[in-house]
Specification:
single chain, mainly beta, five-stranded mixed beta sheet, 25 strands, about 10% helix
Length: about 425
């Protein structure tokens, strides 16, 4: 046997050992289960979260151009009636911030933007402001998304029969300690693209050693207009996730001590505790960038699951989290996750951030997608919320409602 052949055989053996090791690591990769609790309590306060105040209009141009391009063919006016809005998240400032009470991040999608392969080019993080919750416009005269669509050279293949087109999605943000922290997901984007677009930091060097199908990034700003370059939080590679899981709709809160994130993971592998089509995973971080690995994350316990009564195939598909006065809230878009869609919208609450009670009456029964709720004002007795309800038609609607702290506590008591 020649030296060359021996080297080739040794390489094959090493690759087999490496593949087996990775397979064993993934098979042993489990999130921590939360000890389930049960109670039959119901929320007995007034339920006034069902009425819309009005339909939202966003006066903005959706830009599907790649970096360095300004082809008019990839601009879409999504001002009403040509709506195409998706995935809202709102920060509310009772006394205003830089002249506006409402700050929203969203992505153009659905409606006139569509859902075809090319529509992904428009699904870019876009920031708008308002003083009434209904009429929105960019915070500056310069329109444009925070990140342009990834180019073909920045993208990796999703499916063999489709052209390469990485995309952004699933925007979410917090406002803490005088700054916005904006998170969003990059899908099918090369690691080198994150290096080129991102901050020249040790964090990014460490987290861009190889391509990942999905990557969660963060940008920060003290004024909502000028943004630091992106930093990577985590990816769909080991040890952050069972390889190539979807890390869907990650949502983040700051609870005064640190950061807590929630995300949906499809039950695609033997890494989850049961047969539900999806699970919500909870991570923590001290600095907003280095979050728990999958093994140190926790599987959220829903004390009740009213979406199962609506349809046995339903499970959480997209979520949005908020935190106020010691209470965690999840706005849950549930649907047939095997068909990659949501239909019904629910609201859940918790005191420990791990065991959630879900209000049995949905905010919306049909045709909704990832929506958001946000605290507006609080007293010792009540929390006053705003909500942007998103529909799969590309329409956003605005509503307000109130929950009683005492009734929440009674509902959560054992």
């Amino acid at each position: 046997m020649s030296a060359y052949t021996r080297r080739q055989n040794m390489l094959i053996v090493l690759l087999l050992i490496f593949s087996f090791s990775c397979s064993r690591e993934e098979e042993s990769l489990y999130a921590e289960n939360v000890e389930p609790i049960s109670n039959e309590n119901t929320y007995t306060g007034p339920v006034d979260y069902l009425t819309d105040i009005g339909t939202i209009n966003i006066n903005v141009i959706a830009n599907g151009n790649h970096p360095g391009k300004n082809d008019p063919a990839f601009f879409k006016n999504i001002n009403s009636p040509n709506v195409g809005y998706c995935h809202p998240d709102v920060q509310y400032f009772p006394n205003g911030f830089n002249g506006y009470k409402y700050w929203m991040v969203f992505t153009p999608y659905f409606g006139t933007v569509g859902t075809a392969q090319d529509s992904k080019r428009y699904e870019n993080p876009t920031i708008v402001v308002s003083n009434d919750g209904l009429n929105w416009s960019p915070a500056t005269a310069v329109q444009g998304p925070l990140q342009k669509a990834p180019s073909v050279n920045e993208s990796i293949s999703e499916k063999k029969d489709e052209p390469k087109q990485g995309f952004w999605s699933d925007v979410d943000w917090t406002f803490e300690n005088g700054k916005f922290s904006l998170y969003y997901r990059g899908s099918f984007i090369k690691a080198i693209a994150f290096k080129n677009r991102g901050a020249k930091s040790q964090n990014n060097i460490r987290k861009t050693d190889k391509n990942a199908q999905r990557t969660i990034v963060r940008q920060t700003s003290t004024d909502g207009i000028h943004w630091d370059r992106l930093e990577i939080a985590y990816t769909s590679n080991l040890p952050y996730s069972p390889k190539n899981n979807h890390i869907i709709s990650p949502s983040f809160v700051y609870n005064g001590k640190g950061y807590v994130s929630y995300e949906v993971e499809n039950n695609l592998s033997p890494n989850f505790p049961g047969n539900d089509p999806s699970y919500v995973i909870r991570r923590t971080s001290a600095n907003g960038l280095d979050f728990s690995d999958f093994k140190q994350s926790k599987v959220v316990n829903f004390i009740n699951k009213p979406w199962v009564q609506a349809n046995p195939a339903f499970a959480p598909w997209h979520i949005q989290a908020t935190y106020v006065d010691g209470y965690y809230f999840l706005c849950i878009a549930a649907g047939d996750v095997k068909k990659c869609t949501a239909d019904t919208l629910y609201l859940a609450f918790s005191k420990d951030g791990m065991n959630f009670k879900v209000l049995p009456k949905p905010l919306v029964e049909h045709n909704t997608y990832r929506s958001c709720v946000f605290p507006m004002t609080t007293t010792s007795n009540v929390i006053n919320f705003g909500a942007v309800i998103a529909y799969k038609t590309g329409v956003f609607k605005y509503r307000e409602f109130q929950l009683s702290k005492q009734k929440i506590d009674d509902c959560l008591s054992k």
